[in-house]
Amino acid sequence: MSIQYKSIAELKTMLNNNEISNAELIKETFSLVKSNAEINAFITLNDEESINKANKLDDCPSSGSLAGIPIAQKDLFCTKDLKTTCGSNMLSNFIPPYSATVVKNLENAGCISIGKTNMDEFAMGSSNETSFYGKVQNPWGKNLVPGGSSGGAAAAVAAGIVPAASGTDTGGSIRQPASLCGVTGIKPTYGRISRWGMIAFASSLDQAGPIARTAEDCATLLNEMCSHDEKDTTSLNEDIPDFTENLNSPINGLKIGIVKEFDLSKLDNEVVKVFEESKKHYESLGAEFIEISLPNISLSVPTYYVVAPAECSSNLSRFDGVKFGKRCESPKNLEELYIKTRSEGFGDEVKRRILIGSYVLSAGFYDAYYKKAQQVRRLIKNDFDSAFKSVDIIMSPTTRGPAFEVGSKGDDPIQMYLEDLFTIPANLAGLPAMSIPNGIIDNKPIGLQLIGNFLDESRLLQAAHNFQISTDWHLKTPTGIKS
Amino acid sequence: MSWETVIGLEIHVQLSTDSKLFSGGSTSFGAEPNTHVDLIDLGLPGVLPVANRGAFHKAIRFGLATNAKINQTSTFDRKNYFYPDLPKGYQITQMALPIVGKGSIKIEVDGEEKIINITRAHLEEDAGKSIHDLFDGETGVDLNRAGTPLLEIVSEPEIANAREAVAYFKAIRQIVTFLDICDGNMAQGSMRCDVNVSVKKSDDTELGTRAEIKNINSFKFIEKAINFEIDRQIRILESGDSVVQETRLYDSVKNETRSMRSKEEANDYRYFPCPDLLPVVISDNELKEIKDNLPELPDEKEKRYVEELNLDLSEAKIIASSKTMASMFEGACAKTNDSKLVANWLVGDISALLNKENIDIDESNLTSDNFAKLIERISDKTISGKIAKSVLEEIWETSNDVDEIIESKGLVQIQDESLLETIAQTVIDNNPSQVDAFKGGKDKLFGFFVGQVMKETQGKANPQSVNKILKRLLS
Amino acid sequence: MDKKTVSTIAYLSRLSLNEQNEDKITKDLENIIKFVDQLNTANTENIEPLASPLEKTAKTRSDNVSAKNRKEVFLERSPKSNEDYFLVPRVVE
Fold it and tell me: B353-390, pLDDT tens digit by residue?
């Protein structure tokens, strides 16, 4: 029986019913990797260890909630003794001596990390075109981008190679690729998942999260991924609910906010149509729509493009050719060591962001840019706080349209930045947000974004699950609706 | 119209915590290179800092002892620059909201007291060490020190000359050692200072351009560097040129300061709040506990020694000025009721030995335990004061234990009065002419008899008993 | 954005600009800065900057040594080292 496109829930059933052994499951997974090699979803494969683990599980079954489930880990998470590159030349030889907490959490639940997924370099990008290890193909079309920065992760799930993958989201890097690839992904509240071992891009925005085929699977994964970690003082110490508990509760009376300032008339008719149909569907499920105002939301993208580059310009200073990672050939002196190593090791987008970051933090510009952006960020957060007094969740399209063609954003970085228009605000405010497939346009999937209040992932997952049990968008695959 | 000097000191004090400011790496000195480096100290991708509460407590002690404002909420910032021993490419420091705010300290120069105000004291992590001379054409980097907590103490520019600067540095050293927040070991780099020097004409209201002399770690060099720099700046200004604002290094061999080779642009540190560290809050209870448990400071000790232990002010000052000497004093006082005796030894013989060798008491071979034992043996009359002097000299050279020295050299005092009487009588019998002369009125000859008894007993006779016996026998 | 500013920023970031990329990067930076200038339209008087989306204060650790000696592990991952030190080209102060 083919495992392609199966969800975690389905694979668990198959394993429990002995329809497939752990070893067979892993072997077939690697077959699928091979037969989908042109997608280029993976940078490193962990075949030997995965097969060993699977064999062990067959001998000695485990009761972990993810026992035997193959999962792809984004190459931004440190994995002990397994190469971790962040999609960059700078770390092309980096073997971490430790594993990220989130990877450990998933593995403790029994999952098998089959490999590290391709991504935009250092998580900077929305199309997986900036990776040193080549572009990732969207399984829905050879020429289409899968989105980014978790492009490889979303593509691996969309192609049915794995039922789930770990991703990270700083400005939309889980939700946007999930939307463009027709899969489900959630970025929880900032601080839910430990950032220990997650190579930092923008520390006050980065958050890990799962990408899977269903909201239900996302909930299962979230249960394992979330933890309070003493090693990350920004990790929350709040109770972690069982995210699978209330999925099936009906959503009558759910108040859904529509953001006035997200002027949807600027989007293609097709996109608006898909969104309106989803709204209608939610109404049929008993939800109520209320218009809300987030007056400062139009400043989200400029705010993000000050704060994120500022933090990343500092976070990436550690890559200097001295202690780990690449070093340039025979530097004559210290200056050359730094300048040559970093200029050779980083791609153009990373360099651009470092330069912007250094600029907005430099003497004379700090108040005008960085401090200003931090102030606007507070205004945006305050807007959300007010809005959530009258609504339970907020809804919007995840992206401005379905997957675009490789290279179509041209030379202007700002065009690419505007792709994250709908997703960035949730990162600035630290709020949970997810994307679920809700339509197909020209045989390209598109997603619906749900944004929740602080710590309210359960409500998002519930709303998403209710949608998914009454529609079949999430069941569509590039090769037709799966059986 | 004369020149006036304006000096400010930034003193970096290595806090004596067990672990580093943001990681569980050990801070102990002298380990093999790169063996006290935690993942966090190395700045590996994906690591995160966690602040050490003990470092905060030590910083707060300093604030309390200098009557400073304590910022119960303080934050961390990143200072960005590239250097091989700065693993993350930034230093985590406290720029915007330091743990300790404005305070002050009293200094004394030539008997005159002056208050120097302290602008702030903040926590920051130390960098590693770059070793330039060991490897052919290369510099070696040892990250053991990276992440060690530093308290950077910034003075107001109120110091007027090199002697005041040294007095200020000494006063800070005294306070941090007494507070038990730093071991004060200059040779090991536990305290280092950067000096900002500028000159101006005395009727100028504006300050002159300053130069910063970095990383000086000895009293002597501070004084020399400042004096050289003052001269240098005056010469420049008198010739009509202007002083360049720059960083300089002091060369102790040539006794000069020279400009550090670094580009101007490198000085933009692009400070911003560290997003990995949330604000640290010290509760009122915590603050109270630190206050209640603050170690006794020199001033307080001095007062107590004078009022409760009958010391002279001058004695008290000497003993209270050094943490080691003060604790030696207090340790030995526990072994005897005679605090004056203990003081005399410290202020007298021991200070003389220290001055002769030009060392601090921490650098001598005399330990607190050994000194206490010496006092005990004098108090219980095992040895006489005179013999004790020779024991002290032995300890000074060899650091051997007091009891071992007494035993191996057979120095136990002779207390047996009947034995002493016998010896005294023998001396008297052997020296009839001196006896006659003494009885005839030459009182000074008493010392002769004492001396003879001492000679017979190799100095081990209990002097008081000898005096008593001879007085009786010669009367 | 003038050439001096760009080259200063590049130096601060230890990145090199060459003839090929200097113009493009300068133009990109100009455009991005122009784009973010929109922030000036917001009224932020008396607004406290937001450094972290979490409204909480730091958890700290007690002063304990918990790290073990990982010298070999670290040095073997470094681009250049001998058995004790990380090595870089000689630094002249």
Answer: 998 888 888 888 898 899 999 999 988 888 888 888 98
- The number of angstroms, rounded, from the C-alpha of A263 to the middle of its chain's C-alpha atoms is 25
The lowest-confidence range among A89-98, B259-268, B271-280 is B259-268
Read off the tokens for B299: 């001033």
| pLDDT computed for residue B289 by the predictor | 96
Q: How far is CA A450 from CA A467, B43, B394, C12, C47, in A?
A: 12, 36, 83, 40, 28
Share of chain B above pLDDT 90, in %: 59
Nearest CB neighbour to B35, from listed C62, C71, C92: C71
Tokens 């220990």, located at residue: A196
Residue B265 pLDDT exceeds 50:
no
Give me the residue spans of the domains in chain A: 1-483
Q: What are phi and psi of A247, to 5 degrees?
A: -55, -40
Number of CB pairs < 8 Å for B and C?
133
Pick one of 3.40.50.300, 3.30.565.10, 3.40.50.620, 3.90.1300.10 as the CATH number of A1-483. Answer: 3.90.1300.10
| Region A130-154 average pLDDT | 96
Q: Kindly provide the ipTM of the predicted complex, given to two decimals.
A: 0.95
Q: Is A154 left (phi over 0), alpha (psi -120 to 50) or beta?
A: alpha
Q: Residue A375: list chain B partners with CB under 8 A.
A: none
Domain C1-41 classified CATH 1.10.20? Answer: yes
**In chain B, domain spans:** 3-286, 296-408, 417-474
- Distance of alpha carbon B247 from alpha carbon B196, whole angstroms: 9
pLDDT at B412: 83
Give the distance from residue A115's alpha carbon to the nearest chain C alpha carbon, in angstroms. Answer: 21
Q: What is the pLDDT of residues B316-356, one digit of tens each?
A: 999 998 888 999 999 999 888 889 999 999 999 999 999 88
Q: Looking up tokens 């207090």, which residue turns up?
A: B330
Smallest Cβ–Cβ distance between C84 and the set B34, B137, B275 belongs to B34
Instruction: Say what the pLDDT of residue B261 is.
Output: 62
Across the interface, of C52, C64, C92, the residue whose CB is closest to B261 is: C92
pLDDT at B137: 87
CB contact under 8 A, B45 and A78: yes
List the single best residue of A314, A323, A367 to mutate versus C (max C Cβ within 10 A): A323
C59 min Cα distance to partner chain A (Å): 6
What pLDDT score does B62 carry?
A: 98
Which residue ranges make up each domain of chain C? 1-41
pLDDT of the residue at A411: 76
Mean pLDDT of A198-205: 97
Count other Cβ atoms within 10 Å, centred on residue A268: 12
Which residues pair with residue A72 across a beta bridge? A115, A165
Instruction: For an interface test with C, give the residue of B83, B138, B215 to mutate (most C CBs within 10 A).
Output: B138
* Beta carbons of C63 and B18 less than 8 angstroms apart: yes
Q: How confident is the model at residue B473 (pLDDT cuts 50, 70, 90)?
A: confident
Q: For domain B417-474, give its CATH number from 1.10.260.40, 1.10.10.410, 1.10.3470.10, 3.40.640.10.
A: 1.10.10.410
The neighbours of chain B, by the rule of 3 or more Cβ pairs under 8 Å, are: A, C
Query: Is there a contact between C58 and B281 if contact means CB atoms under 8 Å apart?
Result: yes
At residue B284, φ and ψ (nearest 5 deg) are -60, -40
Cβ neighbour number for residue A419 with a 10 Å cutoff? 25
Give the gap in angstroms from C-alpha A42 to the nearest C-alpha of chain C.
23
CB contact under 8 A, C63 and B23: no
CB contact under 8 A, C44 and A379: yes
Listed in sequence order, the residues at least 6 apart from C22 whose beta carbon sits closer than 8 Å to its beta carbon are: C6
Which residue type occupies A154?
Answer: A
Distances from the Cα of B337 to the Cα of A400, B330, B369, B379, angstroms: 88, 11, 17, 9
B93, containing H or E segment? strand B90-93
